[in-house]
Amino acid sequence: MCRWIAYRGDTVPLEQYVTAPSHSLVVQSVRALESTASTNGDGFGLGWYGAHPEPGLYHEVRPAWSDENLRYLCRHIHSHLYFAHVRASTGTPITRPNCHPFACGTWLFMHNGVIGNWSRMRRMTEALIPDSLYGSRVGTTDSEAVFLAILGAGGDTDPVGATARVLATLTDMASAGGISEPLRFTAALANGRDLYAFRYAANDNANSLYFRESGGNVVVVSEPLDSERAQWTPVPPGRALLALAGKPVRLEPFLCESRVAAE
User: Fold this and answer.
1) Is 169 helix (H, G, I), strand (E, B) or coil?
2) Which of 43-47, 201-205, 231-235, 239-243 has the lowest mean pLDDT?
3) What pLDDT, in 10s, does the model give residues 106-122?
């Protein structure tokens, strides 16, 4: 599965968490320790907020370890809120439009997980995207479709509630269709000011998620960026992490980890 990091806090260079740590995202692209796929080489992406309301994006289909531009970009781009993602495809093509993070308006989104049996679930999932947002769908991944469905379900005003509603609907649709493949959703969502992260699964264990908070800064990761594991707090399954501007990080119950899509 994919690996990612999300940061919100003081304005810092992206290299501080993307390329510099001993177990940086670039290292994880070659040797992930808590993933079902130890290598995440199916492209990568950066998303960051700067002087404009909408985020900047950089996507590349080459592995993160082989792109000579990545270290230069991360050294010179500074941001108060940014995402970085290395991809292990679950079946959709390796193309730039399928690389995370995804953007729509002021929102950024990235995902580690899968909507099981996507060939059957795709049409039903895309039907959750309202017409006003469907034009923003440029790739073929389950992740992008769920992102746009969340925005269509009221994500602009209620990100946590909208995400819960969409995932509950997907779980119920899988149940009605007799689909027992996993639905795994470990994801991050941001609007340039606030950061949200989620850890949920049906029919399987949820993918790993950790965070570290210090002095008003928070970094959320698929797996720790160094060997100081005591400094990283695991996000329990079935929880949403809210890192709102000017407030301490808090965890809230989010759906139910034991929920099963097909009984």
Assistant:
1) helix
2) 201-205
3) 999 999 999 888 989 99
Q: Give residues with Cβ within 8 angstroms of 227, minimum separation 6.
A: 22, 23
The tally of domains found in the chain comes to 1
User: Which tokens hold the place of 114?
Assistant: 């899968």
Which segments of 64-106 does DSSP mark as H helices, in order? 68-76
Tracing tokens 């590349």 back to the chain, one arrives at: 60
Q: How long is the chain?
A: 263
Query: How does strand 78-86 pair with strand 44-48?
Result: antiparallel
CATH number of the domain to which 73 belongs: 3.60.20.10
pLDDT 10s digits, 229-261: 899 999 999 999 999 999 999 999 998 644 444
How far is the C-alpha of 171 from the C-alpha of 168, rounded, in Å? 5
* Residue at 263 is within a domain: no
Indicate the pTM of the whole model: 0.94
